[in-house]
Design goal:
It is built from 7 helices and 13 strands.
Length: 261
């Protein structure tokens, strides 16, 4: 399959990522790839092809109470995307994505984590849940909290269908543990967190766009209030010298070298 021609990351874009903790690059995945990925995903959604996480499993606001309740069989994530199909491996190693990551992470030796994200994220109308404000690094265990994830949109993403919300610059904050609840979500009941939350913006994407975001960037997502399924593919990368800590969930499956020649 042909890949989109690499568009070199500009110095301005690199500076934006360093400042904000996220960056949107438009149209990195071509329309043919998008169509093939959607077809592959839909074939795995009905019936849901394991391994899969259901909305009912996470117990987030808006999720069905159990797998046996109405909407309880609504898929949330198709897990282990990299090993599911060659199409996912191709998009995970897309030249433009890896080149961008190499610049953002200042390294030509990159690894894809098979333990974090590495999934197809879906939001279904009617039964999708709310994901509260959090940093991904809250439950990841690496030598350094310096990882970058890619969120690949396969259709329009906006507030109406539960797009990501991000807080620019939050990857630089040193937040006290008391600002988070027991599940390590940022507490919205604290007055001292209001200033942080007031800076939130919605990430609006179109099919083929890729969001790059730092593992410390605070982000959240709403419910899908549209009439269509929202599909996204998410992978997480780290440099080869930033290793997962042994005997943690970050080291269960072997990471994959994805550097370009």
């Amino acid at each position: 399959m042909a890949q989109t021609k690499t568009t070199k990351l500009s110095e301005t874009e690199a500076q934006q990522f360093a400042r904000d903790g996220f960056l949107i690059r438009r149209g990195l995945i071509d329309s043919e790839q998008v169509t093939q990925l959607i077809d592959c995903i839909d074939a795995s959604l009905n019936p849901a092809l394991a391994p899969v996480e259901f909305e009912a499993d996470v117990h987030y606001p808006g999720a069905p109470a159990s797998r046996w309740a109405e909407g309880g069989q609504t898929p949330r994530r198709l897990l282990h995307a990299f090993g599911r199909d060659a199409l996912f491996r191709q998009v995970a190693t897309n030249t433009s994505i890896i080149d961008t990551l190499s610049i953002l992470m200042d390294s030509n030796k990159l690894m894809l984590s098979q333990n974090h994200h590495n999934c197809v994220m879906t939001k279904h109308p009617g039964f999708s849940s709310v994901t509260s404000w959090h940093q991904d690094i809250r439950y990841w265990r690496f030598d350094r909290p310096e990882l970058v994830s890619t969120w690949i949109a396969l259709g329009p993403e906006n507030e109406a269908n539960g797009s990501l919300l991000v807080i620019p610059g939050s990857h630089k904050l040193n937040l006290d543990p008391g600002k988070f609840d027991a599940a390590l979500f940022l507490r919205t009941d604290l007055e001292e967190n209001e200033e942080i939350l007031s800076k939130a913006i919605a990430v609006e994407l179109n099919a083929g766009d890729v969001l790059f975001f730092h593992s410390r960037t605070l982000h959240a997502a709403g419910q899908n209030e549209s009439t269509s399924i929202k599909r996204s593919i998410v992978f997480t990368y780290h440099t080869a010298d930033n290793q997962p800590i042994p005997q943690t969930r970050s080291a269960v499956f072997e990471d994959i070298a994805v550097s370009l020649p």
